[in-house]
């Protein structure tokens, strides 16, 4: 299958000498979920932000056959790439609806109304609170709003940075259920950064393991179906030399 996203020899530097990502290459096919796994500081968010255009990077980023490295965020969003950041960054002072409108700032008013209806359909938890201040939502609801806002522009590639961060296990399950629904609905591809390996396994097709800014391993989800295989992958790619491994296998 032709790739939707092709990342080639991506490197990210913070300052002249601090290299956070080193020659990372991977492909994402339309409609597939790709996970980036690794301990804290491995470079996962930096890769996502570089693809989303939020930070500068070296290397090639090809989206839908076109090089996009020189495009600003706005143009990447227009082409269908949306980054949903790790800490949600919803605007608490605005209502749930207004937050969704922000996500659809590039589309027509009619399209925006349709998209809001679709998002609220997908996330009934926030549908009943659509005219309330977003600050009143629970952590899980805020995460749903952040994902919903990401969906407003009708993306073809959603970059989801730790959607389960700080959520109780039941809410993690709910968020992942909805991601499963988004996934089965169509051609939307997702690149997911997650610490929860078990949930990620259920959702994703491909997994890339990162350590110190490099991809050190790759598995298809079907190669990691049983606990032993998962543990072996964690030990081989993430475990021993990381000072602080933080990958939930349960
Ligand atoms: N704005 C920044 N300025 C300087 N260094 C940074 C900046 N952002 C990240 N880094 C460094 O780059 C490296 C990779 O960070 P990054 O946030 O990409 O890792 P991560 O795998 O997403 O970590 P986590 O799971 O903790 O979010 C780390 O060493 C981090 O300290």
Write the layout of secondary structure elements.
Layout: E1 5-14, E2 18-28, E3 33-37, H1 44-52, E4 58-63, E5 66-67, H2 73-79, E6 81-84, H3 96-103, H4 109-122, H5 124-127, H6 139-151, E7 157-161, H7 169-185, E8 189-193, H8 197-203, E9 206-211, E10 214-220, H9 227-239
Parallel strand pairs: 3-8, 3-9, 6-7, 7-8
Antiparallel strand pairs: 1-2, 1-4, 4-5, 9-10
Helix pairs in contact: 3-6
The structure holds adenosine-5'-triphosphate.
Plain-language structure description:
This protein is an alpha/beta fold. It has a single domain (5-239), classed as Rossmann fold, CATH 3.40.50. Helix content is 37%, strand content 24%. The chain has 9 helices and 10 strands. A 6-stranded mixed beta sheet has the order 6-7-8-3-9-10, with helices on both faces. The protein has a 4-stranded antiparallel beta sheet with strand order 2-1-4-5, covered by helices on one side. The structure holds adenosine-5'-triphosphate.
Reported CATH architecture: 3-Layer(aba) Sandwich
The tally of domains stands at: 1
The largest sheet has its strands arranged as: 6-7-8-3-9-10
What are the distinct ligands in this entry? adenosine-5'-triphosphate
Tell me the number of strands. Answer: 10
Using only C-alpha atoms, the radius of gyration works out to 18 Å
- The assigned structural class equals alpha/beta
The biggest sheet amounts to: 6 strands, mixed
The number of helices is 9
CATH superfamily: P-loop containing nucleotide triphosphate hydrolases
- The H-and-E topology, N to C, reads as EEEHEEHEHHHHEHEHEEH
* Beta fraction: 15-25%
Oligomeric status:
single chain
Give the terminus-to-terminus CA distance. 33 Å
What is the global morphology?
globular
CATH class membership: Alpha Beta
CATH topology: Rossmann fold
The parts where pLDDT drops under 50 for at least 5 residues are 241-246
